[in-house]
Every structure is written in structure tokens, then in C-alpha cells.
Amino acid sequence: MESVISVSELLRSVRDLIERRFPLAWVRGELSNLSRPASGHCYFTLKDAGGQVDCVMFRSRLQALDWEPGEGMLVEARALPTLYEPRGRFQLSVEALRRTGLGPLYERFLRLKERLEREGLFDAAVKRALPALPRRIGVVTSLRAAALHDVLTTLARRNSSIPVIVYPAPVQGEGAGERIATAIAAASRRAECDVLLLVRGGGSIEDLWQFNQESVARAIRASRIPVVVGVGHESDFTIADFAADCRAPTPTAAAELVSPPRAELLARVAQCARRASREMRRALEYAMQALDACARRLVHPAERLRAHASLVAQLTARLGLAFAHRLQGCDAELRRLQAALATLDPQAVLARGYSISYDGDGRVLREAAQVRAGERIRTTLARGEIESEVKAIKRGASG
User: Fold this and answer.
1) According to CATH, what is the number of the domain 7-102?
2) DSSP codes, 166-212
3) How would you classify the pairing of strands 385-389 and 376-380?
4) Burial status of residue 365 (CB atoms within 10 A of its CB: 0-12, 13-18, 19 or more)
5) Which end of the chain is more exposed for a tag (fewer CB within 10 A), N or C?
């Protein structure tokens, strides 16, 4: 009877056979699909034009490298062919790794990147700012892509009120780059969205190669809508990433970049409402205080009339007193002037026994030499006048 062996026994036998048949050897190929989980080990694919093989390089071996393995590098790996029994998967266990150059795809990538960079297609000055509160979000990707599910799930979780428009395009395979560029141009022409997401899940450099097409980069820069690119994993970089207005490490991160959380927006609205309420209440309180101040200054017309009437009465009394005082002063001054005038009145002098004599021409006679004998003169007394004729003239001592 034929013997029956278990799967694990079969795999162990195959592993032993492989390891005995193929000892440690140097294998040349291009690095692709690099992965560095939290364990610190490194998983990648080593490939050439005719095939590819999975590889693992454990942390203890990886730490001996003085350089960082990168996507697309052409390397030589000192590896032991073996079988990973839990998965039944053939792989290389890499013990040492050395650089030999760049793979052809990666070289094409670098040449195109350098040319477009010289042209200014990646300049920070041409990048557009993302809208803080987008009204609609557009997504360019395949309808069958897992990235679309991740993006829609994230947008619904963060803010389900923002509409999403999907512009379908293949994200892998021959001609996909032109279809992606066409979808971006259509979204720009239709102008239905405020921001556009270009997303795809992770993969090898071949899987992501359509995002390294020049047509995609130029469509991104020609778009009237800001474009966020979230292609592959955080370590994956494509030409589209450099041309984008903003690069996200993953499709989920791209969705998070453009969708403000609804809860956060509601909290901000509530905060603004509270601030507005405080400001309105403060403004109202200031207005009430100003009104009280105005009310204190405001006087009823009747009260103002009474105040003016009282003021007029006070002024009238003061005017009367001032007038009486002034009149008394004028009366006293008049009496003083009358007394002074009385002392100068010729009649008063005549009343004391004096007289005034005038010559025939009416001139006052002050000395005897003013007349001659025989002239007629007139003398005024206190009461009445005398006309007489000069009989003789007697001159005084001074005359």
C-alpha cells in the first residue's frame, strides 16, 4: 500500500531538497515592492525581465547595511533559496545585499522626474491651496479598486454631508495613464468639485507605473481644481506625487486631508456661536449703559423751561439790583458834578457881590486900560445890569 505523507512533511522535504541543491549564491535583480513592518525585517521582490522571486532579509542581517535599499535599485543578493513552509511559498533568504545600479524602470522614472522638474512642473509656487471646506469632492480611480472603498468609507466617517463624485479610470495596465489623464481633464472641465483625489492602493513599481506617465503629470497641473494624490504606501513615490498640489501617503490619508471632521466643524460652529453670543451680550450691555448715560443727560422740556424761567428770574433780579446800584452811582456823580459846576457858575460869583463889566463890543473888561473916558460900558450884577459912561480912568499899580 502506498504511503501517505502530510502537507508539512512534503513541504519540509521540498525545502531540504532546495537548500541542498542550491546553496548560498549571489543573485542579481531589481528591488521592488519593498516592505518594512514594525518587526524590522525587510520583505521585497527581486526581479528581472523574465521573472521575479519573493525575498526576506531579517533584521539582524539588514542592520549590517550601510545604505538604504530603495525601490527600483539593481542589487546583488547573497541568498539561500528556501521554502516558507507555513505558506508553501518559494523565497530567497537574503544574508547580504550590495548595490549594482538602478533598474530600467527606475531610471526612466528619474529621467522624466528630472526633465519635468527643470521645466518647473513641480515648483512650490504653482501648487494650489486645498479648500478648507469643500462643497464636493471628486475621486479619480478604478470602480473596482480597494482604494475607492477606503476613500468613501473615510469620507463618510468624517463628514457624510459632503457629496462625492467618482470619475472612473483604470489605475493599472497598458493605456491606463492616458485614461487617468482624460478623467482628470473631464473633472476639471465639468468643475463640479472643489478638490480632486487621485488614488490607488500599493503595489510594485510596475503596478504603479501608470502614475509615472508624463500625460498624468501634465493633466494634474492643467487642472483648474486642486489635486491630491494618494498612491500606494508612504514609501511609494510617483511622478503624479511630485506634480500634485498635495501628496498624501495613502488613499485614506488623502481622504482625511480634504474632509474636515463633521464633529470638529460642529464644535467650531458651537464655539463661534458662543463667542458671537458673548459679543452680542457685551454690545447690548454697552448700549444699555450708554442709554442710561444719555437718559441722565436728557431733561424733559417742561423741566428745562422751568429751569430757564428760574434762570431768567434770577437774571432779572440781578439786573434790577445792578440797575438800581448803577442809578445810585450816577445820581451821586450828578450831584458831585452839579456841586462842582455850581462853584464855577458866574451867577454864584455875582451873588457874592461881584460884577462883570463889558465894553461896547461886549468884551469882558479885565483892566482899566481897555477903555477910554467917554466910552459907554455895561455892568452885569447878580440881579440886573447897569449901563454907564466912563468919566475917568484910574490905572492900578500893575497898569
Assistant:
1) 2.40.50.140
2) EEE---SSTTHHHHHHHHHHHHHHHT--SEEEEEE----TTTTGGGG
3) antiparallel
4) middle
5) N
Mean pLDDT computed over 260-278: 86
For residue range 293-315, list pLDDT tens digits in order. Answer: 887 777 777 877 888 888 888 88
Residues near 395 by beta carbon (within 8 Å), at least 6 away in sequence: 368, 369
**Rounded mean pLDDT, 323-338:** 88
Cβ atoms 40, 59 nearer than 8 A: yes
- C-alpha to C-alpha distance for 107 and 255, rounded to whole angstroms: 31
Superfamily of 108-260 according to CATH: Hypothetical protein af1403; domain 2 (3.40.50.10550)
Query: How far apart (Å, rounded) are the C-alpha atoms in residues 227 and 128?
Result: 8
Nearest Cα residue to 30 out of 84, 69, 67 = 69
Using CA atoms, how far apart are residues 196 and 138, in angstroms rounded to an integer? 5
Mean pLDDT of the chain: 88
* Per-residue confidence (pLDDT) for residue 1, from 0 to 100: 63
**Three cell numbers written together for 63:** 542592520
Residues 181-214 as b/e (b if ≥16 CB within 10 A, e otherwise) read bebbbebbeeebbbbbbbbbbbbbbebbbbbbbe
pLDDT of res. 372: 84
Report pTM.
0.52
Spatial contact of 199 and 141, defined as CB atoms under 8 Å apart: yes
Q: How confident is the model at residue 102 (pLDDT cuts 50, 70, 90)?
A: low
